[in-house]
Amino acid sequence: MRDGYMLDDPDFHAWQAGHRLNPGDRSSWWRPWLQNIVNAVARGTDVRRARIVSEPVSDYIRYEYAVTFPNVLAGEQVRWLPRRQSTDLVLPGNDFWLFDQETLLINHFSGNGDWLDVEQVTEPAVIKLCGEAFEAVWHRAIPHDDYRLD
Questions:
Q1: E-assigned strands of 71-121?
Q2: Which residues on neighbouring strands pair with residue 105, listed in sequence order?
Q3: Deepest in the core among 89, 98, 130, 145, taking most CB within 10 A?
Q4: In 3-state terms, the chain is what percent helix, strand and coil (to 5)?
């Protein structure tokens, strides 16, 4: 839900300097996390990610968009929701990952976007709130292949 994360990330700096991932050179961008997605999707699990972004988008979101294709190729479904279209949605204050409506991992970031830590939550009421928020965003958001940055 942020417009920038870990702005000192060397990969982000390389992208700013003109480096682009080559979709034809899988070995240069494939990483173990993507194999986890492939395996989960092969088991019949939906892996979905929704991003809420301000428009016009920040340089970081342009970078994030550019490096999302490996996730999509691995089977992850990614959607983008312009922040202007989220005003009437109830959203949690932090980014999160929700696993099978049972486990919630909440990521905490500093004001500058640096990752601080992760908190595991199993409280049903919090899981329900975050699950409902995600579904509201998901149904309104634009699929990755249809979202345009400009």
A1: 77-82, 95-99, 103-109, 115-121
A2: 97, 120
A3: 130
A4: 40, 20, 40
Tokens of 76: 């992850």
Q: What is the pLDDT of residues 69-96, one digit of tens each?
A: 999 999 999 999 999 999 999 999 999 9
What are the distances in angstroms from CA 83 to CA 2, 32, 47? 10, 31, 22
- The tokens describing 123, both together, are 């409280």
Instruction: Give the model confidence (pLDDT) of 95-126 as tens digits.
Output: 999 999 999 999 999 999 999 999 999 999 99
pLDDT given for residue 150 in this prediction: 78
Can you give the residue ranges of every domain in the chain? 10-146
Structure tokens belonging to residue 27: 């070995």
pLDDT of res. 111: 92
Rounded-to-integer distance, Cα 93 and Cα 9, Å: 23
Query: What pTM, to 2 d.p., does this model score?
Result: 0.94
The length of the chain, given as a count of residues:
150
- Taking every pair of Cα atoms in the chain, the longest distance, rounded to a whole number of angstroms, is 45
Query: Could you tell me the sign of the dihedral formed by the alpha carbons of 86, 47, 143, 113, in that order?
Result: positive
Beta carbons of 69 and 120 less than 8 angstroms apart: no
